[in-house]
Amino acid sequence: GKEEPHSKFLVWLMKEGESHGLGNIFLEKFLAAVAKKYREKEGFSPKEVDIIPEASGEHGVPDIKIRGKDFLCVVENKIRSMEGKDQTKRYEDDAMKEAKTMGISQERLFLIFLTPTGRSPLDKRFITMSYDEVIDLLRDILQCSQGMSDPVRFLIEQFIFNLQVEILHVFDLEKRAATCLSEYLRYGDRYLWEKQEEISNVYDELMKREGS
Fold it and tell me: How far is the C-alpha of 98 from the C-alpha of 93, rounded, in Å?
């Protein structure tokens, strides 16, 4: 349930020359998902990209920074901890300054707020991403990477399983229901609109259990 090991595992998968032997396939899929969220037609090249974990800035330390030749992507990972005071706004300010220094336009600055349920950040410039979406990317890799070694396949499968059990509680209906309630109490009607499908699924499962 700790954020740092999850971020480090994602960074490991993103880096082309790491021991997983998968090249930049995860980075390519992750950047494609970011481009889709921002409705970017141009997309990103996964080549000549720097992946920087816990990159210090003037106002804080975002979890992952992906720096390309013509784009900058900052990922803030929140699993159980709450967002700090003006945290995403401070990270946005730092990223805008860095992009300007690099000669990157603001249109090529991408800010991702990664959480288990895809909850909204305080700063509206950040776009949400859920761990369900990350799992989908990892499953795509498991299906399309036929040359993957057994140890690497096992690691990715166990990472997915850990996310499902410890973070998303997909096998624990009570915890999923409790999460829906706590998120609603925290974010109000905004949560109801953003997570209608998840709330509906939990409700349907609770009704099935009640009926049985």
Answer: 9
CA 25 to chain centre: 16
User: What is the spatial distance between Cα 41 and Cα 107, in angstroms, rounded to a whole number?
Assistant: 12
| Helix H or strand E encompassing 113 | strand 109-115
Q: Burial of 26 by CB count in 10 Å (0-12 exposed, 13-18 middle, 19+ buried)?
A: buried
pLDDT digits (tens, 9 = 90+) for 15-46: 999 999 999 999 999 999 999 999 887 777 77
pTM of the model: 0.80
What amino acid occupies position 93?
A: D
Contacts with 60 (C-beta within 8 Å, 6 or more apart), sequence order: 84, 87, 90, 91, 94
